[in-house]
Amino acid sequence: KMAAGEAAGRYRSTMSKSKDPSGLLISVIRTLSTSDDVEDRETEKGRLEEAYEKCDRDLDELIVQHYTELTTAIRTYQSITERITNSRNKIKQVKENLLSCKMLLHCKRDELRKLWIEGIEHKHVLNLLDEIENIKQVPQKLEQCMASKHYLNATDMLVSAVDSLEGPLLQVEGLSDLRLELHSKKMNMHLVLIDELHRHLYIKSTNRVGQRNKEKGRISSLVKDASPVPLMDVTNLSTPRKFLEASQFSTPGSSSMRETSLLEIKEDMELDPEENSTVFMGILIKGLAKLKKIPETVKAIQDRLEQELKQIVKRSTTQVADNGYQRGENQPQENQPR
Fold first, then answer.
1. Does residue 169 fall inside a structural domain?
2. What gap in Å lies between CA 233 and CA 213, rounded to an integer?
3. Inside any domain, residue 177
4. How do residues 82-137 score in pLDDT, each as one tens digit?
5. Is residue 251 part of a domain?
6. What residues make up the domain containing 316?
7. In terms of C-beta density within 10 A (0-12 exposed, 13-18 middle, 19 or more buried), how is residue 197 classed?
8. Which of 31, 153, 275, 304 could staple 7 via S-S, CB 3.0–4.6 A?
9. Which of 168, 157, 192 has its CA nearest to residue 284?
10. Is the whole model's pTM more than 0.70, yes or no?
């Protein structure tokens, strides 16, 4: 009995100190294992059953008291459980959809890359076709530029067309005849430019002096007691050498340097290209440089220098003789110049 009393005391103390059911169960097991009397075990069993029934009664009373809250809680828990389950299913479905989208995007990416490459190829082909169309019009445009003596534009057009025909369009068999034609014209283009350069160097410049002298002669013949016509004034004549010296010795900020710089010379398609002889010769030199024919130009000028100077002397002599003859007819016999 004393042992049973001690076990009951320990049981109550355990119940009061701890709410943990595992600790209570361990305490009951320890009490039953230390008790040797069957009566004590039956007493302990009775107490446990009584406590169990009391718990059931208390639980039933609490359920009756809190039935509404319990029902709401159970329903809420069921709803939350269903939502969690649905969310898991949806997440699983979304994950599967994302995987399928990833695979489709890989396929689309390959298709887009292929379409992008095809677009670049088509754009390149269109550019080549546009270039071919422009090059086909080069002979006609070149003939017009040569006829109007816009040589710099003609040279740029010809050099660009030949570079394209011998570069990106080299494999186009249909342009072989045009390639040969333009290449031949490029090989002979510098001869035309050199002839024009000689014409302005030796003929055009001296013609201006002769015309100026004729005008002076006509004016002096109209004035009474006029003094003999002076020699041709060439001090103010713009020659290529003076053009070079002006551009060589002028300061970088001066207007003459800006006007005479060969790199800044541009061709105006609206104006007469031969209006300014100095600029026209600069354009010719620039065209020859684009054709890479400067050495041939220098050699041609050196070879023809003596011949051209003789022609200048011959033309000048003829002009002087003609002027003297015309003046002699208008003056008395004793004042005729020799």
1. yes
2. 8
3. yes
4. 999 999 999 999 999 999 999 988 888 888 999 999 999 999 989 888 888 888 88
5. no
6. 149-208+274-321
7. buried
8. 31
9. 192
10. no
